[in-house]
Amino acid sequence: MRGSISLEQALKTLQDDPKGHIRRNFRWVPLYLRELIGETQQRFISHGSNAFNRLVDEIFRVVPEIFETVLFLTLNYDTYLEHALMAGVSEKSFGEASDYVQPNARFALIKLHGSVTWLHSMDTSQYERVMGGAEIPRPDRMSIVPSYNVQPPGSLKGYPALAIPVEGKAAFYCPAILCDTAARWLADATDLLVIGCSLIDPDIVNFLGSIQRVNRFKIVNGSAVAGDDACARLAAHDVFRVLPGGSMPAFDGGFSKFVTEGALGNFLRD
């Protein structure tokens, strides 16, 4: 639509507004996102199984026979993957950062932009300073709670530990120990499945560019055109310029279709 702007552009304008009270209002955005996404996913999960459960089930049918380990790398704030992993293969709940890397269960889940269950625990005075515009703590100093609507114990207040989707953001909002794990696992990866990511952010494109060799590659972005556009952005890195067998990596459909109509199983076993 002519004259329209994206959410990321609108939030960037709010973040950079010269008026102090407008910039302070920006600090409410993470609280709103946490409430919105948390409540939406809770109502959805209450209906039972979903495509994330099917995704995890299908992947672990071929682990470790075809794939030794699996790295789930997500930019989403929701906990659909945590629920699916706990229902199937996870050895423990996700109560602290170390639980996101479970070598014995052969997976790591890395949430590069934070989560609705990640919080900065603060006393009242620190919380008020942050809401007034003071610097937000680094994500290494955070706690993990069971649900989006849970607050820290006692008199502490929780501020969401998640990245705000502003235009031009160029950094991950994730504990360093998890980002380092993702970098190590990516360096050894040989197969890549991208679902629902436009790859417009240079940070994630460069991160995926650390893969040294690609045996299998598929991108699921709703349509073949959207998938091709995202794939073209990856071509900034040599490893994605010539894909094995001259394959067409873009799937002509969305996540649910890819998972439920056999395409995921074919990708995993081809």
What does this structure look like?
- With 270 residues, the protein is an alpha/beta fold.
- It has two domains: 1-169, no CATH class; 189-270.
- The protein has eleven helices and nine strands.
- It has helices spanning 7-15, 20-25, 29-45, 51-60, 80-88, 124-131, 176-188, 202-208, 224-234, 255-260, 263-269; strands at 70-74, 101-102, 107-111, 114-122, 143-144, 157-162, 191-195, 216-220, 250-251.
- The strands form three sheets. The protein has a three-stranded mixed beta sheet, covered by helices on one side.
- Strand 7 (191-195), helix 8 and strand 8 form a beta-alpha-beta unit.
Question: Which SSEs are present, and which pair or pack?
Answer:
Blueprint: H1 7-15, H2 20-25, H3 29-45, H4 51-60, E1 70-74, H5 80-88, E2 101-102, E3 107-111, E4 114-122, H6 124-131, E5 143-144, E6 157-162, H7 176-188, E7 191-195, H8 202-208, E8 216-220, H9 224-234, E9 250-251, H10 255-260, H11 263-269
Parallel strand pairs: 1-3, 7-8, 8-9
Antiparallel strand pairs: 2-3, 4-5, 4-6
Sequence of secondary-structure elements: HHHHEHEEEHEEHEHEHEHH
* Adjacency order of strands in the biggest sheet: 1-3-2
Rg, Å, rounded: 19 Å
**Which whole number gives the mean pLDDT?**
90
Beta-strand share of residues: 15-25%
Compute the number of structural domains. 2
Helical content stands at: 25-40%
Number of strands: 9
List the uncertain runs: none
Span between N and C termini?
41 Å
**SSE class:** alpha/beta
Query: Count of helical segments?
Result: 11
Main β-sheet description: 3 strands, mixed
Shape: globular
